[in-house]
Amino acid sequence: MTTLRLSFDRIRKQLASIARHPYFGFLAFGSILVVLRLLAIGGVIPNSLMKSLVITMIYAIIALGFSLLLGYGGLASLGTAGFVGLGTYFIGHFSGTLGYPFAATLLISLLGAIVLGAIVGFISLRIEGMYLAIITLGLSEILREVFKSFTAFTNGVNGLGFRDFALFGLPVSDTAVDFIVIFVFILIILGTLNIIKSPTGRALLAMKNSDSAAQSMGIGLMKYRLLAFILATIYAVIGGLLYMMDQQFSIPTTWSLDFSLNILAAVVVGGAQSITGIILGTFMIFGLNMTVLKEIAFFREYPDATWIVSGLLIILITMFYPGGLIRLIQAIRFWLVKTGKKLKRKWRIHRYGEDD
Amino acid sequence: MIEKLLYVILAAVGLYELVDLAVLRRMKKRLVHRARLLNLLMLLVILTGFAFAIEAMTLYLFLQIVLLNIVEMCVLVLATTGIVLIFKTSVTTNFAQGTIATVGAFTAAKLIIYLTANSAMPMSTKLILALVSSAVVCFLIGLFIDTVIFRHSRYSNPVGKQMITMGIVLVLFGLMPVLFGLLPLTVEAFSYEGQIINLPNMFPLFLPNHNLYALCITVAMLVTLFAALRFTKWGLGVRATASNETVASMMGVNTKLITALSWGIAGAFGGVAAFLFAPVGNAVTVSFMTPVQVNAFLASILGGFSSFGGPLVGAVLINLFSSIASAINSVWTNVIVYVLVLLLVLAKPLGLFGKKTAKKV
Q: Most C-beta atoms within 10 A of its C-beta, which of A25, B156, B233, B284?
């Protein structure tokens, strides 16, 4: 009997230690998403809701890349839209129009992302702060003009369609794309977690707080700035590939300043340094109007009016909770714990009398 | 033409390195002299670039395109002034400048429709009323943003302030269809006729009257603004706030009032800009000012945020670049302009007229 209880204890302890592992929460989140997707196949959840969740996940991947720049590197960039757009056109042109295998497309996209990220990184060594944000905005506009005018590659202003996607020779259905997105999303989250906790992430943080101090501690500014921009660009391009698989259409007007600003908003609203916060922020900016608000009659009449909610949210959160929603949640949790302790003490006093 | 320009640039770079290594190395204030040399060479390269371009496209074509583009230049200059004014007093890049201006243009268009339906005023009176209404509405929005939102944001780092302006963009984006309807509107031009200018040895040039009026309005507004900055107490306050807000408020400058007024005036400049921009082939839609906004940002960093005049020169330069580029290749105009600006800013990271400020470590 005792041995049985002991082994139960051991199992419980092991389970607790698994639950405390940093990966556990995100893996659980991933499994919940998979279950939701399965429920959608079963018809329990409306398919449109699932579609909005999938596109929100793609935006969250892009936002995670951006948070490496803003939250960790302290580098403001407004070029996200251009890079994501480039990703969509890479897969649309090479896999769609030319019919290359997916592995080749992925290789080309990664190479393109590395080259582009390195270029922006080199620019960031010379130009800083607000100037850098506006220069990257200029780069993004250059890319958008290329999308508009380079018709052989992008099909111009009419937009590029992308159908019949095949992975390793097998055709991929819409449902399978959703699972791919969930898989890549969880993979990216775990990767980001590792980068943040590694010496690279610490070096980026040091660089954010003070260039000079970081340099004097032996952190090469050039290496880490380039790395930050290359990583962010790779995330953006991967987001672009997934966007094209999911939406099957890409048009230059999507990749304008608004898109970059929305990603920036998602990162800042959620809390630039926390993965949970960024997922939350992305849902607040992109997911909320797709899932909840469009059910309200007023917003059905004026679809653009959903922007008012996002805008007010951004203003209020930056005004009162500059650390992002995640700080708000932490504050609430702190308050709950404190109130719980107080109530417990009061109950004890009531039960056992005052001890002095 | 491009080959020639490349040779000039290469020669300039070579000259710079040569003089730097041979002469400046022995001088005491090497950095100062180096910056001066760089300025001189860049000025020369830009001027020769313009000369080559004008030679390639003939002087007549250049003048004609510039005359036709005057209104865009005025719009860009006005928008840039607004952005710089806000940057100076609130240390943030105002993403909402274009959107606030769009609200002004919508008001003007609605007012014109209302007046046409309900009164028998002549067109010119209606347009002047509409212009004033656009400016006043934008002034009030600017004032509101500063007094209600910016004054109460507890946490004021630059990125946070940028985020607030971007939130304002989203709110206005959402509000405009609700307030003004979903259809694009139009604003009439002051006049659809034009002047013929005869210069010796050249075909006659054509200058649309709308451009002439736009130029007059812009010049009048800029002269008033710069005179106010130079001679009035408000101008002194703005300059003091721009140099250091805390110290200025300690010296008895009412920085809150100064900032609020700056926001209002910047908004009014935007409103006038949108009103002038709407008639030249642009229907008033929610995002019709976005290209102007992007160009105004680029102009500000091309000129450098540290002076009031620099960004205006940047705006004029960007407009001239795009005039020339549109004659050379109409499809890739914007790409050529952006790449040029990018290269110029890479050569001078703080802008053409920027001054380096000492950074505390």
A: B284
